[in-house]
Specification:
3-stranded antiparallel beta sheet, 283 residues, alpha/beta, 6-stranded parallel beta sheet, globular, Pantoate--beta-alanine Ligase, Chain: A,domain 2, 10 helices, Rossmann fold
């Protein structure tokens, strides 16, 4: 596996592959890789001739009180895992490579509306930071296909909209969330959980499953279902942010005719913010 830290080194390798008409798949990450990330890499390996993975902890998507400085950085372990997963190139740029004028002075890419709801309402500016860095990485790597996990479903929908709106010739593939045996969605931030919190954390997923079961059984009072789920999270010791039933395609509030939905939830448990979501099909 090749490693690159500069844009010039990355582009030189991409040019070589393009001359050979290689198809390139890309997996952008912030590192501290777990089995969910590696499933994305293996999927990329199955659909492309070459696989590029980036590790970049993006300062622009962290708020002033969030965990940028303590976000887990495990580069050597990540490198070993990526070699085992058969990635071709690891791109690990410094902040100066991605933001030559600094994050505050860079041109920004924003998706209006979609970036301001759900997690965007609780984390102002977060998704503008995500779409800006993803657009920059797309321009650097110039992949044919990019693979994302569905755990951050709102992010996936936003990136699909950005690619469509900006006419980027890139396919976006979403891969199902990888879970621990007790249902907790795998996340680099799970390591922040204390022992008691870790035992409680899977209840977020369990409540989303209960919401799904109610809707599949015919319940259509979405607001009442959401309120009950929030109250249940609070009783379990979470600090709920939201539980929301949305249309899967665009995260709009569902109408009576909508059948393909997504229930999304976010809550704090101690110092850790957890997010999760599940798909729902109703008749």
């Amino acid at each position: 596996m090749i490693s690159a830290r500069t844009a010039d080194d990355l582009r030189a390798r991409i040019r070589e592959w393009r001359v050979r008409e290689n198809r390139i798949a890309f997996v952008p990450t912030m590192g501290n890789l777990h089995a969910g990330h590696l499933r994305l890499v293996r999927h990329a390996r199955a659909i492309a001739d070459r696989v590029v993975v980036s590790i970049f902890v993006n300062p622009m998507q962290f708020g002033p009180t969030e965990d940028f400085t303590r976000y887990p950085r495990t580069l050597e372990a990540d490198r070993a895992a990526l070699m085992e997963a058969d990635a071709d190139l690891l791109f690990v740029p410094d902040v100066e490579v991605v933001y030559p004028r600094g994050p505050e002075q860079t041109t920004r890419v924003e998706v209006p509306g979609l970036g301001d709801i759900l997690c965007g309402a609780s984390r102002p500016g977060h998704f503008a930071g995500v779409t800006t860095v993803v657009a920059k990485l797309f321009n650097l790597v110039q992949p044919d296909t990019v693979v994302f996990g569905e755990k951050d479903y709102q992010q996936l929908v936003i990136i699909r909209r950005m690619v469509e709106d900006l006419n980027m010739p890139i396919g976006i593939e979403g891969i199902a969330t990888v879970r621990e045996p007790d249902g907790l969605a795998m996340s680099s931030r799970n390591r922040y959980l204390q022992a008691g919190e870790r035992a409680t954390a899977p209840h977020l997923y369990q409540l989303l499953c209960e919401v799904r079961n109610q809707l599949v059984a015919g319940e259509r009072n979405y607001a009442a279902v959401e309120r009950a789920a929030l109250e249940a999270l609070a009783r379990l010791g979470f600090e709920p942010d939201y539980v929301s039933i949305r249309r899967a395609a665009d995260l709009a509030s569902p109408g009576a005719a909508d059948q393909v939905l997504r229930v999304l939830g976010a809550a704090r448990l101690g110092a850790t913010r957890l997010i999760d979501n599940i798909g729902i099909s109703i008749a």
